[in-house]
Amino acid sequence: VVASVGFAQAVATFASTQGALEARCDNEGEIKAQNWLNNLHRDQAGVEALCDNIFVAFNTPSVISMRRFARMYLPRVEEVQDADRSNRGLELQVAMYVHGLRYSKASSRLHSKTNLSDPRELLQTIAREERKQVYEDRVALKRKRERECLLNESSSNRLLAQQLAATDFRFLHAAPNLPKLFTLSEVEELNWSRPPTDQLELMAGGLLRHHCTCQACPFYLKDLRTEKDRVLGTRHGLFKHLKHFLIGDRDYWPGLHVHCEAAYRKHVKKVASSSSKSEAMKSARLKILNVYAKHSTKQGKLGDNERLVVTIDSILKQLQDQ
Question: Is the four-CA dihedral 48, 51, 57, 59 of positive or negative sign?
Fold first, then answer.
């Protein structure tokens, strides 16, 4: 970043000395600058002079350096440095380097919250994320070893394999890793950067029609449609992905997100005070539990009631935070 900005400044400075940017705010000056840059490749002497100027700029700390970059574009870093006598310029350089390692792909940087005005906080945030990732990797490795051990003991037991797969699936999809509920504006913003053949489709309740919305899932926001789904508009691909909810301890309640959204709109959304909102949340939860109590008597046991309460509270909290 510093080198790119410094390079651009070196080119602009050289152009200014050539008289191309005599009036920066004047249209004529801008046209002259553009014409000079467009015709530069025809002027060998001009190219060599520009290269020499850039070389000198990069070898002059007062022209291109991290400290100068911080003073020009992040003055708050310098102010904090003067206040606590710490080398915030060095911290900024380390933070930018670590941030580049942590978010090495452009797709990962789109959703990262970067605040270079406080490099120490940025370093602490990345350190927390790394510690969490290391912990999750170790838990996943432990679960993999346990699964392999059990499968080796009973390799012919198909039900055991299904139960283990369902356990791993619920670890990524059940509370606290519940599906993210999207708003219409979020879906429209994401669709701008997605191909026309893989557009997100918002459903009632905040879920997506053909994409998993659990952020911990490896298939998060990936198109799960089968060829038949693309032709007939069915959703077999997504339901095949969610089939593990129906194995072992069920964590599936039909239409739960739709019922939660309806109850939230009716009981909670219009309430202003926090004390009244707490009571409204309880009323919404009770309303949803009554719905699934009727389902249980008609269709058999749908899922553990305690996990249902936790799931309902998490969904209502998501709706409240939107």
Answer: negative
pLDDT digits (tens, 9 = 90+) for 187-218: 999 999 999 999 999 988 888 999 999 888 98
- What is the rounded CA–CA span in Å between residue 157 and residue 124? 46
What is the phi-psi region of residue 205: left when phi exceeds 0, alpha when psi lies from -120 to 50, beta otherwise? left
Of 191, 193, 189, the closest CA to residue 210 belongs to: 191
Question: What residues does 303 pair with on adjacent strands?
Answer: 251
Q: Is 193 exposed, middle or buried (0-12, 13-18, 19+ CB in 10 A)?
A: exposed
* Burial class of residue 211, CB neighbours in 10 A (0-12, 13-18, 19+): buried
Average pLDDT of the chain is: 77
Report the SS3 class of residue 223: strand
Distance CA 231, CA 225 (A): 10
pTM: 0.48
Residue 174 contacts residue 251 (beta carbons within 8 Å): yes
CB atoms within 10 A of CB 257: 21
The amino acid occupying position 191 is N
